[in-house]
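Quick question, first post here. What does this chain look like in 3D?
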Amino acid sequence: MIYVIGSLRSSRVPKVAAELRAAGYEVFDDWYAAGPEADDYWMTYEKARGRTYQEALAGIAANHTFDFDRRHLMRADAGVLVLPAGRSGHLELGFLVGSGKPGHILLEGEPDRWDVMYRFATGVHTDMEGLIGGLRESLPSK
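> Answer (accepted):
Ran it through. Tokens below.
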């Protein structure tokens, strides 16, 4: 199974997931159903309760979300980080790669700014064709 990582605000996530499914992969992107403002609502709710960020991270809602995502990251065979994405997405990709699983990055074309640390990824791709080819190399069963 491929875990598609990205931003709740990115309209690219469901499109990439659909293309991967069309290529024959089992894909997990159910986290996207929370909607583009889920993190904002969580922050507003926790602040209204008088909680700090650290207190909110230890709360039931944060633990539930974290456990849901981690469970599916752990059962994934590989991950694809769809850019643009923020800190959470990069941490999730790092978790997968650190767990010995292939982790690919799908850029939005050639980047304006380069980052050497993307070498940690199994592959860095500028289009779906390159991504699917890279997945086939790192997951040879497809």
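The two ends are 11 Å apart (CA to CA).
Strands lie at 2-5, 27-28, 78-82, 103-106, 123-125.
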